[in-house]
Design brief:
CATH topology of the largest domain: Endonuclease, Chain A
Main location: membrane
Number of helices: 18
Shape: globular
Function: Catalyzes the reversible phosphatidyl group transfer from one phosphatidylglycerol molecule to another to form cardiolipin (CL) (diphosphatidylglycerol) and glycerol.
Largest sheet: 9 strands, mixed
Number of domains: 3
Family: Belongs to the phospholipase D family. Cardiolipin synthase subfamily. ClsA sub-subfamily.
Enzyme class: transferase
CATH superfamily of the largest domain: Endonuclease Chain A
Distance between the termini: 47 Å
Keywords: Cell membrane, Lipid biosynthesis, Lipid metabolism, Membrane, Phospholipid biosynthesis, Phospholipid metabolism, Repeat, Transferase, Transmembrane, Transmembrane helix
């Protein structure tokens, strides 16, 4: 009997070794960055069985076979639609500037999405002003309202929006509301879903979390976009979730969330409507592509040379597209780069690009919150500060709340603004939306806002930063090891 037990023991060890070897080989063959592969191998070897199970659950961008099949079936129709959009705007393409021209070609080649000109964007930074503007636009909607958010948290102005949607649906407006199931779980537990549906609002919970599906698709992939489109004439996008900061995460100890939204009119509105239509069809199976822009939505003559590129990213879009967009902007910079992000855990390529820019004489500034609601991300973020400061990057830590704005300003004529954090999750995993604008007037407003952020911040000094305690340094390095997985 002892020999049987001994044989079973050796067979168990052999089976485990084969399992670890097979998963390790799969990690290597995926050809990701060295840091990501090394982090996963470390988890697999340091945490027996648990590490292997964790990789099988969240190690790859597995969106599920049904979702993958539906996405493939949808792709041709949407690429054709965007191709028709490009043709309708083709006579304006010669106006594209030094940033917009390569960006247009990159996005059109990767996803078929063209740059649009003649839009009229407005930067909005005060929550009260944003909600007041949104409520007016909802009250004025005549035909359709499309909304998509990661978080809808009940309370305050968010409840006013819910009631406005109910009123719109009852007067005959078609309302489609898509919310991430995990991010908006408090909303789905409230009375609002029932009231909205009873009023005729179409409501979908995206990427539902269920233990029964954990081995069918990756459960931590999230729908992180923020999109509002009204009558295909007005759109909003940016960093703000559908939350009133006065009522959201008040016990987190980080202060009120600080966000921006962009309200815009013009041809880019139709592109945002198409992105919402993609997500709606992917989740609910119903196709509702918007009509292409007509003469009634002709480009604003005062902005005919200002390009706006709508950039969706995520598991159903080409891999690393948003990282390519970021790198393209950084390497085109001539004088200054200012980055603002609540969560800063850069990829190897992004980190190297920022260091190279700073060392080549470009002023590189990074604005991050002093207090963060994610302990792991906060410590991992700090692990990059010494290297960045040594290269000449100016780091500002914002003290006016949780700075949730996600924006990149290149020189004074190009910017990226949207839902993308500068971390691995946003760059590679979540469904995100970014607006790239070549608009000097808009960029000047964003630069002024960045100046206000810096005014509410303190700048890190390399000499003082190096004097932090050994405990903090070790904690930073511990979380740095897991940075590629955050």
């Amino acid at each position: 009997m002892d020999k049987v037990y001994q044989l079973m023991g050796w067979l168990s060890v052999g089976a485990y070794w084969l399992l670890v070897a097979a998963v390790s080989l799969r990690v290597v063959l995926k050809r990701r960055t060295v840091g990501v592969s090394a982090a996963w191998l470390m988890v697999i070897y340091i945490l027996p069985l648990f590490g292997v199970g964790l990789y099988l659950l969240i190690g790859e961008r597995n969106i599920g076979r049904a979702r993958q099949r539906r996405s493939a079936e949808m792709a041709d129709a949407y690429r054709q639609w965007f191709g028709q959009l490009e043709q309708s705007l083709h006579h304006h393409q010669h106006h594209l500037g030094r940033h917009a021209h390569p960006l247009h070609h990159l996005c059109f080649q990767q996803m078929g999405i063209p740059a649009t000109l003649g839009n009229n964007p407005t930067l909005m930074q005060d929550p009260k002003t944003i909600f007041e503007s949104l409520l007016r636009d909802i009250e004025g909607a005549r035909h359709t309202i499309q909304m998509e958010f990661y978080i809808w948290h009940p309370g305050g102005h968010a409840d006013e929006v819910a009631q406005a949607l109910i009123d719109a649906a009852q007067r005959g407006v078609e309302v489609k509301l898509l919310l991430d199931a995990a991010g908006s779980r408090d909303f789905f537990k409230s009375h609002w879903p029932r009231q909205l549906k009873e009023a005729g609002v179409a409501l979908i919970a995206a990427l539902e979390v269920s233990p029964l599906r954990m081995f069918l698709r990756r459960m931590d992939l999230r729908q992180h976009r923020k999109i509002i489109v009204l009558d295909h004439e007005i759109a909003y996008s940016g960093s703000m979730n559908l939350v009133d900061p006065r009522f959201f995460k008040q016990k987190a100890g980080v202060g009120q969330w600080v966000d921006v939204m962009v309200r815009l009119t013009g041809p880019a509105v139709t592109a945002l409507a198409a992105i919402h239509a993609w997500d709606w069809e992917l989740e609910g199976g119903e196709r509702a592509l918007p009509e292409l822009p007509s003469g009634e939505t002709a480009p604003d003559p005062s902005h005919i040379s200002d390009a706006l590129q709508v950039i969706p990213s995520g598991p159903t879009q080409p891999e690393r597209v948003i990282q390519k967009v970021l790198l393209l902007g950084i390497y085109h910079a001539r004088r200054q780069i200012t980055l603002c992000s609540p969560y800063f855990v850069p990829s190897e390529h992004l980190l190297e690009a920022l260091i190279t820019a700073a060392e080549s004489g470009i002023r590189v500034e990074l604005i991050v919150p002093d207090k963060n609601d994610s302990m792991m991300v906060d410590w991992a973020s700090r692990s990059y500060f010494t290297e960045l400061l040594r290269a000449g990057v100016k780091i500002y830590r914002f003290q006016g709340g949780l700075l949730h704005t996600k924006a990149v300003l290149i020189d004074d004529d190009h910017c990226l603004i949207g839902s993308v954090n500068l971390d691995m999750r946003s760059l590679h995993l979540n469904d995100e939306i970014t607006l790239a604008l070549d608009d000097p007037t808009f960029c000047a407003e964003l630069q002024t806002l960045m100046g206000h952020y810096k005014g509410d911040s303190y700048a890190l000094d390399l000499t003082i930063w190096r004097q932090r305690s050994l405990r903090k340094k070790l904690t930073e390095q511990f979380f740095y090891l897991f940075a590629p997985l955050l």
